[in-house]
Automatic annotation (TrEMBL):
Keywords: Hydrolase. Belongs to the AB hydrolase superfamily. One of its GO terms (biological process) is proteolysis. Gene3D superfamilies: alpha/beta hydrolase. InterPro entries: AB_hydrolase_fold, FrsA_esterase, Peptidase_S9_cat. It comes from Streptomyces chartreusis. Pfam families: Peptidase_S9. SUPFAM superfamilies: alpha/beta-Hydrolases. The keyword Hydrolase applies. Residues 73-279 form the Peptidase S9 prolyl oligopeptidase catalytic domain. This is Alpha/beta fold hydrolase. It comes from the Bacteria. GO terms for molecular function: carboxylic ester hydrolase activity; serine-type peptidase activity.
Length: 280
């Protein structure tokens, strides 16, 4: 929150895909001095089109390739008339490395999403309406969106998340990293202390602590059969938003798991209607 976020120099590179509805380009931009890679889908036509920045879930950076997260969403949203900028994050694909990112709870990903919005605005592209921008995150990317909303209130017009992680980082560590014996846990706790040793750090690094700062409407999707990110995490976060008087809506999907199956198309209809209300 205290750090100035600087996103700029959006560069549109080679065409990756052409469809009947949009063209996909390789892109890079600067995020607090780091080069970040990604892809951008631009609908056919003159525009200007509203834009969405996508924050993908966890994929091992060693196997990750540019634009790999959320391909279904990238396609549907672009066909619906949105410019879609999907960030790879630092330490992924063609992005620059940040050796301190993991020990600092991957907060660099939050900077990269915030700065993707700034880069879109600074580019002044005629086919992008930089006054109408939203965020969409999935799983880990849902947590990134939570962070962005509390770090930079007013940055965007609306946000949606799918099957998000906990808004308390210690719960994510206890579920995903500690049981696997991830050596990074020891590094994190050596740098910042455990939640018991340094509760103030862990309170301050949790987006749920700052929900009173949020100004944007938030839509949350979660399946009742999600065995990766428990629905209870989302219910607790949504309750905190509601207690703070924020504009939040939770949609649950009976029987859907973490990645969504039969109800995914229905959920995207809801998402499109949500963004159409707030960005058009």
């Amino acid at each position: 929150m205290a750090r100035e976020q600087r996103g700029s120099d959006l560069r549109v590179g080679a065409v990756r895909v052409r469809t009947d509805a949009y063209t996909q380009y390789a892109v890079t931009y600067r995020s607090n001095g780091l080069k970040i890679s990604g892809i951008m889908n631009v609908p056919r036509g003159d525009g200007p089109f509203p834009a969405l920045v996508l924050a993908h879930g966890y994929i091992d950076p060693d196997i990750y390739t540019t634009g790999r997260g959320m391909p279904r969403e990238q396609d549907v949203l672009a066909r619906g008339g949105y410019v879609v900028l999907h960030t790879d994050y630092r330490n992924h694909a063609g992005s620059d490395d940040d050796p301190d990112n993991d020990v600092n709870l991957r907060l660099g990903y939050t900077e990269d999403v915030i700065n993707a919005v700034h880069a879109l605005r600074s580019a002044s592209r005629p086919n992008v309406d930089d006054g109408r921008i939203g965020l969409l995150g999935r799983s880990m990317g849902g947590g990134v969106v939570y962070n962005a909303l509390v770090v930079a209130p007013g940055l965007v017009d609306a946000a949606a998340v799918y099957a998000p992680v906990s808004s308390r980082p210690e719960e994510n560590i206890d579920r995903f990293q500690r049981p696997e014996g991830d050596p990074l846990v020891e590094e994190i706790e050596a740098a910042h202390g455990t939640p018991r040793e340094n509760p103030e750090f862990w309170r301050q690094v949790s987006p749920v602590t700052y929900v009173d700062r949020v100004t944007e409407p938030l839509l949350v999707h979660h399946g009742t059969a999600d065995d990766t990110c428990p629905l209870a995490w989302t219910r607790a976060t949504v309750a905190a938003f509601e207690a703070a008087g924020k504009d939040v809506e939770l949609r649950t999907y009976r029987g859907e798991g973490h990645t969504f199956g039969p109800r995914w198309a229905d959920s995207m209809d809801v998402t499109m209607s949500f963004f159409d209300r707030h960005l058009r």
